[in-house]
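Worked example

This section walks through a single chain of length 452. The input is the sequence exactly as stored; nothing has been trimmed or padded.
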Amino acid sequence: MTTSPVTLDSVLALLRAQPHDEDQLEQIAQEARLLPIAELVYLVGSRPATEAALLFRVLDKELALAVFEELPPLHQAELISGLRTPQVAEIIGDLDPDDRALLFDELPASIAERLLHGLDADERAMTTAVLGYSRDAIGRYMSPEVLPLRPTMTAGEALEHVRTHAAEPETIYMLPVVDATRRLLGVIGLRRLLLSEGDEVIGDLAHEAVHARATDDREEVARRFFGAKLLAMPIVDSEQRLVGILTVDDAVEILEQENAEDSARTSGSEPLPRAYLSTPILRIVRSRVVWLLVLAVSAILTVQVLEIFEDRLDQVVILALFIPLLTGTGGNTGNQAATTVTRALAVGEVRVRDLPRVVWRELRVGVTLGSVLGVLGLLVSGLVYGWPIGLVMGTTLLAVCTMAAIVGGLMPIVAKKVGADPAVFSNPFISTFCDATGLIIYFTIATAVLGL
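Given that input, the structure is written out below as tokens.
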């Protein structure tokens, strides 16, 4: 159904109106039913906590659950505090175990424990199993609700088994095949099962499974998931026993979170845990101020370099005019290399052991870029300010581009090696490093060429 802006505005107006009587609450409910899920998620995610809780209360159970599942875990936790206990219990009980575990991560321990004990025994056991893995492990994002098949089943028996239990697992498009000890033997797609003869044996129809261990890193597994073009992936323990399944929606969510985190850190800030419009101002400030302070302290290096070469600037004032050009070129070259290598690391095109190859490749890229810019700098500055200055500029651009490309390609891999986030070592630190180092190269070449 297409929704006009008037409907959205009317819901906003009703939410802002105080106090709310029964007629107004009913009107909000009627208007809200006309909005698509995406608009309701926007309203709940962008309004203050009291208004969001009010809107959520008037939604029917199915609509409320659909909206709740689309919210970030931190926002889910904050919303729960403003809802009635019976409504909370219903919502928590209807969540998938993996989504429930992410929500419990954001709740105070006492509340999470109370909600956990309010679940039935099966749901509690599945949720506890997911909570047993670290936040970076893929086991934290898998669904333990799986429908396995035995290799001795016929296709007809397997189809009947799927029909009987189809409502229990999160997906039935990919069916794991396990032995009596739940050891993973292979997988079979629902399409192939439907097209098979009724007397064919599942063990003969199944094929080798692309799978992951529950303790594997979530981002690496998610990227492998999409690289193999899967709809679902079996998750096993250290003894190859099936413990859960990763579905495509959870893999998408993982990569969205990782990409948002990398994007924020590349620009020198921390990712926001909830919608921008509903994030408190101080929380946004905290996400940015740490990196600004770090970069401000780092930038002092540039000032100190200028102070060291102050006497050269006094002798040839024209050198100061080219400082922004050189620092900008070095920073941009380094950032380009870092961004390219960081992405290559993320998608598995480059690994830590490829460090020498990356350095050699970036060396050649840097020399080529530096040669092009250096010739241009030599000609332009030489014609305008004299050939000695032109020689300084051309040589410096060659050296700076080469240095920046190598450093930009090197630092993400070093970060990966020491267990840090490669995005953190991209734009902010590389820019500062290339600024200071580029100035040292610049004044060293100027001193040699101009005899300062």
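What to look for: The mean pLDDT is 82.
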